[in-house]
Design brief:
Chains A, B: Keywords: DNA-binding, Transcription, Transcription regulation. Chains A, B: One of its GO terms (molecular function) is DNA-binding transcription factor activity. Chains A, B: InterPro entries: Homeodomain-like_sf, HTH-type_TetR-like_transc_reg, HTH_TetR, KstR2_TetR_C, Tet_transcr_reg_TetR-rel_C_sf. Chains A, B: This is TetR family transcriptional regulator. The structure is a homodimer of 202-residue chains. The first copy, chain A, has 202 residues and is mainly alpha-helical. Chain A has two domains: 43 residues, Homeodomain-like (Arc Repressor Mutant, subunit A); 133 residues, Tetracycline Repressor, domain 2 (Orthogonal Bundle). Chain A has nine helices and no strands. The first copy, chain A, is elongated. The termini of chain A are far apart. The first copy, chain A, binds a DNA duplex (30 and 30 nucleotides) through helix 3.
DNA sequence: TTGTCAACTGACCGAATGTTCGGTAAACAA
DNA sequence: TTGTTTACCGAACATTCGGTCAGTTGACAA
């Protein structure tokens, strides 16, 4: 009755969502601290002050973007497939999902991986990220205890190097030209779990 | 005869080198754009203007730091061991040397890996870095052609994931508590070349 | 004792920063 | 027609920025 058309064809213009999307893009190009509100305004095609009509300020943009990445990570570890079954299977699943999430939310995860703790917002994000890292580290330790991955390298080190590879995706992946998330995950798992070297005995 | 003591016990105080070292440390903590000259001055225990007695300005500090990392990389690829012998051997050597350089010049390389191209200085550094990356990529391709590393993953992808692991060292390595460069390189090569998974047939 | 000089300080500059505010044109509702 | 809302502009705000410069300090040489 009221609200005749629930979402009437809203006239051209921005909204909090489109501002966030553009902002994250610019943040990733120039870095958060290297981006001025003037830069954002230019990218949006409006003046600086128009931005404040849609969002409360620069730091809120960062905060919302980081949450979008972190929420994805924590939804992942909350899944049953991350906590039941053989540790090696869970680890593979988590790595695969991480690659998928990285690509699904590329700009948001990219931003997260570059945070250094310059503000309360950044420190809070860093702490949530460390919690995720601890989860992965436990998984790797379990897989080593299980005997399914090599035990001659410290599990903490394995975790870091493995996710060093995974996270590097944000540094070079181009959605337009790159492989699909699944293809990328396949290649990454083949490499990290199977190893680069061809068996001379084969 | 002249200059009675070539380097007399110079009185307390800073010099271009110590300013650079401190600056790079702060740049890595807060990010280059997130660091003000006031921040630097505080870290050095002097006023802002004292910094300009030793170095020409903020961007020169960045430039000198990046050169220190890039010069190391190019000295490495200029070595004979990077260009003669089996490709797989050269690749292993370059990876090992990269780990060593990363740790030897940790703060400088860390800074280099975070550059995004916001200024002429940064763009020039990015271009030199890309040249290094191309060298590595060629090496990996040769090793694949040789048949010494797996051919079922694109060489460009292998390069990126491999050096994703290597470069991640800057994100977590702590000189005081961490392993030596050689131990780290051993573990990394074991993992990346040998693979994580334990052979079920073994 | 005087002079030199490296190493700094403190006051300052113009430009850029993130943010606020008063106003306004266009679309829509009554 | 009138009033309201949406989405914006332009000017201004206080603050911070990188950088300059005239002067001061203290160690040392002559």
């Amino acid at each position: 009755m009221a609200t005749p058309t629930p979402t009437r064809q809203r006239r051209r213009g921005h909204d909090p969502e489109s501002v966030l999307a553009t902002a994250v893009g610019v943040f990733n190009e120039r870095g958060y601290d290297g981006t001025s509100m003037e830069d954002l305004a230019r990218a949006l095609g409006v003046t600086k002050s128009a931005i404040y009509y849609h969002v409360p300020g620069k730091e809120q943009l960062l905060s919302r973007a980081l949450d979008r990445a972190l929420d994805g990570l924590f939804e992942m570890v909350a899944d049953e497939r991350a906590s039941s079954g053989a540790a090696i299977e869970r680890l593979e699943w988590v790595v695969r999902q991480s690659v998928r999430l990285l690509i699904d939310r590329l700009p948001y995860v990219t931003l997260l991986l570059r945070v250094r703790g310059n503000s309360g917002t950044e420190l809070a994000a860093l702490e949530r990220r460390r919690e995720f890292d601890r989860f992965i580290s436990r998984l790797v330790t379990e897989a080593a205890t299980e005997g399914s991955i090599r035990a001659d390298v410290d599990p903490g080190l394995v975790t870091r190097l493995l996710f060093g590879s995974v996270n590097s995706i944000t540094e070079w992946y181009q959605p337009a030209r790159g492989a699909s998330a699944d293809d990328l995950a396949d290649a990454l798992l083949k490499m990290t779990f199977g190893g680069l070297r061809v068996d001379p005995a084969a």
